[in-house]
Amino acid sequence: MSQLHENKPVESKVTEWLTQLGWEYRSAEDLKPYNRLQMNAVVEPILVEQVMALNGIGQQAAKMAVETLLNNLRNPIPIEGNEKFLNQLCDGVNITIDHKDRTIRFINFEDIWQNSLIVTNQYTVQQVRADICLLVNGIPLVPIEAKQCARRGTNWLEGVRQFQTYDRRSEKLFMCHLFGVACNGRLSKYGIPGASSSYFNEWKDSVIADKYDNPLLHPENELCRVYKDENDGLMHFDVERLPNGQLLEQMKFGIIGLLQPERVLDILQHFIVFERDDNKIIKKVARYQQLRAANKIVDRVVQSDKAQGVIWHTQGSGKSLTMLYTAYKLRKTETLNDPTIFIVVDRKDLKDQMDDTFFNCVFPNARVVMSIGDLKSILRNQPAGVFITTIQKFKELGEIKDERDNVIVLIDEAHRTEYGDYQMELRAVLPNANRFAFTGTPIPKTHREFGIKDDNGKIEYYLDKYSVIDAINDGATKPIRYTLGPSQWFLDKENLKQGYAEITAELEEDQKRLVEQRVQPWKTLMKKPERIKTLAADIAKDFRERLEPQGFKAQVVAIDKEACVLYYNELLNYFDESEIRIIFSTGQYETSERYDLFSPFYIDDEERKRLIDNFKKRITDEEKAKGNNLKIFIVCNMLLTGFDAPIEQTMYLDSPLRDHNLLQAVARTNRPYDYGEGENKLSKEFGRIVDYVGVFQNYKEALNYDPEDIGEFEDVDALLEVFPTELDAAFEPFAEIKLEDSYECEMAIIRKLSEIDHGQFENRFHRVMQLWEAISPNPGLRPFKIKYLWLVTIYELYLEEFRRVDFDAEFYAAQTRKLLEESATLLDFRGHLPEIAIDADYLTKLQETRLSPSDKAEKIIRDIETMIRTNQNSSAIYIEFQERLDALIRMKNANAIEIEGLLKKLSELYIEVDEAVEIPKKMGFDDKGTFEIYQILKNELPTFDEPLARAFANELASKVRSKIYIGWQEVNQEYNRFLGDVALIAANPKYVALGIDENDILQETIMDSIVKNFSLN
Q1: Cα–Cα distance between 124 and 139 in angstroms, integer?
Q2: pTM over 0.70
Q3: For residue 666, what are the CA distances in angstroms to 321, 441, 670, 867?
């Protein structure tokens, strides 16, 4: 067990770093002369002194202004007091001095170094003693809880738990604070005291705040490395990293990035909101990507002649709030001379969502544009403020123009609104406006409309980008896992896909969309009564067993309104009417027959809003008493965008969505969700898609995005393959214990627990638990259920004896209880098919087309290049493929081969590339990692000895497999140790002929491959 105390080294080290950022260290002893009572949060003499200097007023007037500010700390509702206190702290207070009204300011935002910036330790207010506290002009803005340094643990949570009672143990400190920071020597996370741990985030942006002088940029400052990034032209910092590029000093990175004095004051001025929701006030602080994007926009508007840009922030990452922060900072930027900002959306539900964001946060001078006539009036009168409107209102405006250059347009979901007649009208009406496209799912047209091409031809695709992978890694969104429906439905699905492919084989995408609207046979196939009946039974079983025990909710996405009704009628065999509701739009041009079918489900906007509010709430006894028992929405198009319900965990997808529509729909399930506290706490670990139509079989093609940007969806079958290994690894310390229900067994387990590395045990257990939850109810888990339950028992004993974290039993217990006894019918389920860039019938279909032989060759060449480019980073074999393809291209260009012969060779190469995933197995290698070592040698060695290279790869891989454990790749010493093993085996006399021992670069290349293929996270 660690013997490190909190102030050795965490508290003292963090304090040292803060002084190097520009905070002045003052100990508790140093602050004693100010005679601050522990019942008071603010060091009033410092504040009074600063107010006098900043405003040029006497002591009596300064004390009057300070007393006005501090009156907010007497508010009986702490969160209201905090809101009013921070507002006045930023905006100042009005008092009368010598019979004249004056606005007295408390902080100098124009020259930040004229403020008193203090870091101190053990700052006590009422019943709370903060380990570290940052004081601005004597005001404790940032309390920091620095907990025990942990090797692998998560003890920053102890700090979060302490924060949760600030409003009751020290309401005055709570009403002063800006945000809190919890750190443990390994991580630092920031958030709002009182929020759950899911809403505490790491700061991961490396941009240095340099509007004012920053000590980080002083040559003598050795706190971290600083550099100018050639891509964005900004100054950045960095700290020590592991050989694989991952951060070693994560806590230090977060402290430096977040707590630069200029950044703290920027957050105070522009990046805190108080949101009203269901009669509650919720305080929110910007995440790093929100602040970064807003500041980039403001800087571009103020300083640059570039008048546009694309902000790609993935679904669920807080894009609406980013727009709010941006608008707020633009409005407060004096050099813009009171600008006008248009928030433009293209659909009513998105406008409602944006309205809620701005008005729930009490945004000043913001209103909705009510009509085209209202918009005309705004454009004629040119008032300052923020105006929220749909893009459709920018039509029929005649010759009206607003030619001011301090107009900024923030366009929401720009992948839809950036093209067409409406956008044309907008640009004509606002010719000199700055335009910024916000999108969660960009398409090429977005880049063409809003991207920037400089004089040298360099294209800026994104002004700021926050990808799916970024959001998942940050916890801003949850990973998405999926499974395909039962195998007996695959026949219908394949018929559907084949029919649709035949119909649309020669069509462009726009034409395909028209076909989707008009062609009925394939829809009829999907709406077969026996098919709907089978799927409805599966949905009901899955929901009752998997979601309902934990209180999660779901959407059923059907292909059209008729399918919604069919699903609804069938699901009534399993659900009460109060549990399921259809949400779809009201039709205007329907036949009487269709109107009779759909009209019972038509509802007005008010009822729809009420249902959505009910869906977002957990079903409790209190909610049931109010009449809310809603658990499942059935939809076709509505609620697939602009709809956030964190409680939704699963989407039953029975509609062939694609491109940004698919990505947006899937994102309905990825919002974080926390409920309850302590042992009853439930956290959503992942979103889930049950795919009945087969969209995800070729999801890279369906989404049409770079795989690096959209992330990988986890394959349940692949997870099942690694589960036994992970379970054995977690169980390894207890392998010699006879597991039985006895006192002796319990004592043996506790004895062993006292000897092992607790951090490693926790990591291994949580990995096993998450795998179990992800894979269940797959029957492949059944052979491991007893061992898994024993591991759960051991973990419960561990928590009971060592109390390192609260045992959140319900998180996985509900699933374990329901899913251990799996039905044999589940054997009919299949995992998703192998991912391929082009479907398996590609060559056959290509031969059947009317393309000329030369065009067919070009088509194959382009598609082979796409597969190589997509996969080249994952395997060295693609280098060889590229060389062979280049040779064929040279032969084609030189007319050195008949076109029929070229087509034959290209087809053969295509099949090899398509089947590359099977190459290691076909060549007799145990795994991909071993094969990659062999392939690197084949690519790099001037003379290649195949048997010797194979033997070297097998021996090295065997040695690696015997030593790896979870997280080894993050430890610098382990990397060097394995690199030494590479050199040691290479120096063995039997492998000297390969020449690896004399080639340091080749050894490092092999080591990089080992990290990539043998890492365990």
Answers
A1: 13
A2: no
A3: 21, 12, 8, 25
